[in-house]
């Protein structure tokens, strides 16, 4: 895979709590320079201007997912009104662990209803915290609720980030009906390409430049 092709899989991400306005501007500029698919930012920094050809994504219910569904929906509605192209929402992971999949589906549906297509909805399931059975059930709930993507991780959970196993299982579950985003703990170009080989069609990276240059990235999202 060429570096240019790999870059088009990437949501270049800045979600650090300490990020400043200057950091946001630098991240957008870097995303445009590297040719990534999008830039993914925290909701408080929206609205922002991005260059033509670069998509804008924002997180919702991030990073815990423990926000009330009405709050997640309000975040999503505001983001959609501010012109974002994509929303990456976090489910209630505890509900998934308990097997409360109807509640998970309802949570996702609230966000989908608040930000209908053409806004793209990605559902962060925190796969490292879930059993394989729960991963399958949550992916199925996301599909029923109208999501466009299922996504492995926030990158903030102590259980870890994306794995090839989780990506492959998620892809097997949703087939070609939804897409799969791998994020969290992707440190090398080898990692990135392994996730794509397993079925990921998007990657969440903060150290995009280092990974595209085939250098080991520092710990982070």
Question: How is this structure best described in words?
Answer:
The active site is at residues 88, 151, 181. One of its GO terms (biological process) is carbohydrate catabolic process. Catalyzes a reversible aldol reaction between acetaldehyde and D-glyceraldehyde 3-phosphate to generate 2-deoxy-D-ribose 5-phosphate. With 221 residues, this protein is α/β, with parallel strands linked by helices. The protein has a single domain (3-212), classed as TIM Barrel (Alpha-Beta Barrel). Helices cover 41% and strands 17% of the residues. The chain has helices spanning 3-7, 21-34, 69-81, 93-97, 101-114, 132-144, 164-174, 189-198, 208-212, and strands at residues 10-14, 38-41, 55-60, 86-90, 120-124, 149-151, 179-183, 202-205. Strands 1-2-3-4-5-6-7-8 form an eight-stranded parallel β-barrel, surrounded by six helices. α6 (132-144) links the parallel β5 (120-124) and β6 (149-151). α6 packs across α7. The two termini are 23 Å apart. The mean pLDDT is 96.
